[in-house]
Amino acid sequence: MTEQVPQPAGAAAPTKDVEYFRTFLREGGPGPNAHVILLGLTVFDTPDLLKAINKGFTYHTFQRFQRNIALPLESVMTLVNIPRRTLTRRKNEGRFAPEESDRLVRASRVYGKALELFEGNVSAASNWLLAPQRGLGGAVPLALAQTDIGSREVERLIGRLEHGVFA
User: Cα(117)–Cα(84) distance, rounded to whole angstroms?
Assistant: First the structure.
């Protein structure tokens, strides 16, 4: 049975957050946590980011991430590895648990790396994340990135592609 992969939303105009991230791609960013811009965060310092994760992100952070990466809700839920019922509870509560917030940061990091690979092109990055990749043994990056180990493998492939190493 072939897994149906949802397609990204239409070629919507990049959000302000994505434009801000693109500026960092061109001019250099605030360090290794620049990807949190895709969550609507401006906390780039690792200790402060850890405090924010431990406090738990607001539901608005999830919504902003979805808007910024232009993927359907189901795809974002897959990437963040959060079931619909849990997402509904978090919406009602207004805040995510620390481990869910950590997964949101991981998802923004993977998506940020894909955006770097495609020079800030949201549509190309989304399409790549949703398509089976030979460098991942035919796996879909979005599905692999649900776990820490899988996300590292996706990031390693992106690094190889950036350096022209396809095997």
Answer: 30
Q: Within a domain: residue 11? A: no
For the chain, what is the largest distance between any 2 Cα atoms, rounded to a whole number of angstroms?
Answer: 46
Q: Are 8 and 130 in contact (CB under 8 A)?
A: yes
CA distances from 54 to 36, 49, 101 (A): 15, 9, 8
Tally the domains of the chain.
1
Is the residue at 41 inside a domain? yes
> Domain limits at 125?
16-162
pLDDT at 70: 86
DSSP code of residue 44 = -
**Predicted local confidence at residue 167, as pLDDT:** 56
Instruction: Name the amino acid, one letter, at 88.
Output: T
Structure tokens belonging to residue 89 = 């509870």
**DSSP designation for 70:** T
- Asked if residue 3 is part of any domain, the answer here is no
Distance CA 163, CA 148 (A): 23
The reported pTM is: 0.88
Q: Is 4 inside a domain boundary?
A: no
